[in-house]
Amino acid sequence: MENRTSQKMILWFFLACFLVSISLMGWLLSPFFSIIVLGAVVAGAFYPIYRWMVAHKTIRPGVASGLTCCLIFLSLFVPIVFFVGILAQEAAELVALAKSPALSSFITTHFTNNALLARINPLLANFGVAITGADLNKVISEIGRAVGQFLFDQAGAIASNTLSFIASFFLMLLVIFFLLIDGPRLVQFLEDLSPLPDDQDAQLMGKFSDMAGAIIIGNGLCGIIQGTFGGLIFWLFGLPSAFLWGVIMALLAFLPIIGIGAVFAPTAVFLFLKGRIATSIFFMVYYLLLSGGVEYILKPKIVGKRVKMHTLLVFLAIIGGLQLFGLLGIIYGPLIATAFLTLTEIYHASYQRLIEDA
Question: pTM of the entire structure?
Answer without folding.
Answer: 0.68
